Amino acid sequence: MALRALWLLRHDPAAGGAVLFSRRFPTVELRAETFNGSTHVPVPSDSSFLKALLFELRLVDEHVFVEQRDSCTRISHSCVHSVATAAGELWPVLAFHKSGLIYACVPLVEGTLEPRPPLLTISGLSQGLALLLGIMDYVSPSRKNEAELNAKIGQLRNLMVQACPLGTPLNTNIRSLNSSFEDIQEMPVDKDQPAWRSSSYKGRPQVNVCITEKVKCMQYDQRDVVDTWQVYGAVNCKCDIEGSAPNVTLSLSLPTNAPPLQDIVVHHCVTSVDPAMLLSTSAEPLHDSVYNGPYKFPFIPPSDSFNLCYYTSQVPVPPILGCYQLVEEGSQIKITVNLKLHESIKNSFEYCEARIPFFNRGPIAQLEYKVTYGQLDLSREKSLLVWVIGQKFPKSLEVSLTGTLSFGTAGKEHPTDYVCTGNTAYVKLYFRIPDFTLTGCYVDQHSVQIFVPGKPKITASRELISSDYYIWNSKAPAPMVYKPLLE
After folding, report:
1. Using CA atoms, how far apart are residues 400 and 28, in angstroms rounded to an integer?
2. N or C terminus of the chain: which is more exposed, having fewer CB within 10 Å?
3. Which distant-in-sequence residues (6+ apart) come within 8 Å of 238 by Cβ?
4. How large is the C-alpha radius of gyration of the chain?
5. CA 459 from chain center: how many Å?
6. What's the pTM value of the predicted model, to 2 decimals?
7. pLDDT digits 0-9 by tens, 280-336
């Protein structure tokens, strides 16, 4: 988990680019030469890197098609880039552009670069991203004040001595660090205090835990296409506890016969964990030998809020089943939307609504509709219907919407989409269910152990949130994750 170099750059469409801050780590670069062997590409000069990165991020010459950058084989789905230099392709370069500033670093790859290893095996990527986000959090409030921004950039070199000594990220919370070497020398040293505990707390011990699950879904209501859904969970903790290295143990519980948690990734503050827990993966089908608990995490908490772990689970059904039909009849379009809340789901929402966009068409000129529950609103642009279902489904757990629409002449202000052409269309659901998780995962407050004096205050909560929850028009083609072979 080391970095070869990092940069803070500026991009101004009128004035061009500039290097605001750069830091190189020669000892890590020597390790990179050893690990990478003949595939090693050295880090170029700051000016050369700036020019190459602006080109790669399409911040210059964006109107010119360049085969090596703009072809379909170079579609980027992440912040990891390959930057062309005079010595070859520099990879992996972690970079993102935010509010006129570019944050970039080159993590160390402990092995050959050809063939390129999977991103998940490069541990420096996550640490590098955390460090860049910490730098962004430190400088972004001052980006509109040039004098304040310059002052903070001037302090970055001293801060990096603490945050990333010799290229190894230790503390990504840049705001919590001291900006002068005098302060560093006067800081008391506790040999038991881990690097991620940057401040000490005084007061009654408190632990706040929140389990957030997000469900993604693609429903088609077609015989030859399989609906897909995925659940992702994150356990967020905030531990206000006295001591330099307090020990906390937290356990996650599941109802009887619930599907196990899989693809578990833990925070680096976790001191020990059952290896079998980390080996359970959703890439393999469920069977009796799959690890199904206990999910116990002993850890020394950081000073700030952090995600203790992430997980997935193969739940048997999505929370809301839907069917969407859109057909053209002459100059009109008829739509039908049916939604059903599964009986195992808690019928108590903070909000629940279905948004029905219409792309590549003019404004909605006429609308006749009927809803069995909730209310239907038309957006100001007259290109989106918002069906507000509210905080509960009716006792039947089923709601429906039917409508007839006609459209006016399309203008530049009306939305377009390259996927939703013809009758290809979708309904997107937005909802949040407090005090509920789709997996049933929860934290028993009595299972939280804190080995410090005093009675701790423990607060546990959970929530289920929709994320990319689509119901596609069953009367037209739709994009799909995969299409099984028909027998």
Report:
1. 61
2. C
3. 206, 207, 208, 304, 305, 306
4. 26
5. 25
6. 0.63
7. 888 777 666 677 778 999 999 998 899 999 999 999 999 999 999 999 998 899 999
